[in-house]
Amino acid sequence: xxxSNGRQYLATPGPSIIPDQVLRAxxxxxxxxxxxxxxxxxxxxxxxxxxxxxxxxxxxxxISNGHGVWxxxxxxxxxxxxxxxxxxxxHFGKSWAKLATSLRLNTQVLDFGRCAPGDPxxxxxxxxxxxxxxxxGLLVVQADTSTSVLNNxxxxxxxxxxxxxxxxxxxxxxASFGCDPVEMDKWGIDVLVTSCQKGLMTPPGLAYLxxxxxxxxxxxxxPNVSPYWDWKPRLDPEFFYMNFFGTxxxxxxxxxxxALKIMKAEGxxxxxxxxxxxxxxxxxxxxxxxxxxxxxxxxPNESHRSNAVTTFTAKGHNLSLxxxxxxxxLGLTIGLSLGFDENEFLNGDSVARIGxxxxxxxxxxxxxxSSLEVGLKACQIPxxxxxxxxxxQILGK
Length: 397
Description:
It is a single chain. This protein is an alpha/beta fold. The protein folds into two domains: 9-16 and 267-395, Aspartate Aminotransferase, domain 1 (Alpha-Beta Complex), CATH 3.90.1150; 21-264, Aspartate Aminotransferase, domain 2. It is 39% helix and 16% strand. It has 14 helices and 14 strands. It has a seven-stranded mixed beta sheet, sandwiched between helices. A three-stranded antiparallel beta sheet has the order 11-12-14. It has a two-stranded parallel sheet with strand order 1-13. Helix 4 (91-102) links the parallel strand 3 (83-88) and strand 4 (106-111). Helix 2 crosses helix 10 (250-266) and helix 11 packs parallel to helix 13 (362-378). It is globular, with a radius of gyration of 21 Å. The mean pLDDT is 96.
């Protein structure tokens, strides 16, 4: 018998849970797309995203997913055959590199594996050795959703500054924006890539580039950018529709406005503190389960873990059965494996992910953890029981 009737709970690393007031904000007739409030809403969203990224730079909006703004970030800054260095800690770093290669960039991947962040000393060493400044861009995913590794953006930015290397610093903050802190101007980030369906709590469809003045200047020297991805008309639109290269995504804009309203009411520091506590609830539970079984956090060092998502493994056990069981019987959906394709991980079946981003509080996450513990027992995966008994130590601090 299934008990999954009721609202399905998404504990995936995006799309995240959409607040009811965000859903309600979309339940309205279409507005005039040439004048009125939709123009002000668009401008306010752009300002709010820039403010959250801690930058004086401009934000542009694309009707796109994250892959689209990956492409936009590259075609506006680099010419074919120019060299970019990509820091990889999992599937998404490698995927951004693959896209760069398909755009005919000379792509060098610096792979730090799946359990640790990029080493700023190694990055600094490579930049110092590049005496001819052939590396034009450094690409980093802040939190790789596949592995839950969090790169230290400040330390990487310091590595660039220490060498006085002129490369542009590009950051994918798609999973981590609104969950892990980012300070664009202070850390020397030139372009930040993000989208709406994770920490920004909005249905998929909007993606953002936050662009520093330096990157804006660089882009003026790049010829023949395809019209849709060209950010120059979006930075300085002569007409409102040029913000989107066509019709505005009106109802997604209503949704994003409402989500940002929620975020501003909570406050940036409170958002980051809440996400840190939520991540600790998850990692504490997995560590507890692993005291009497194979469950193990993918990222061993706490300071290297993202506040947005947690990847865990169970060597020799099929976690796909756990995912399927809790979805069918309890109405809970957790994330599947990405990039763990070796036999060691049962071709990915011994890896799973829990998203803890956006519209989320402890009692929601405690329900996820309790459901997973029921599933572990039902699927006969060895574990230590009663993970929630230590939660007062985390939440009572």
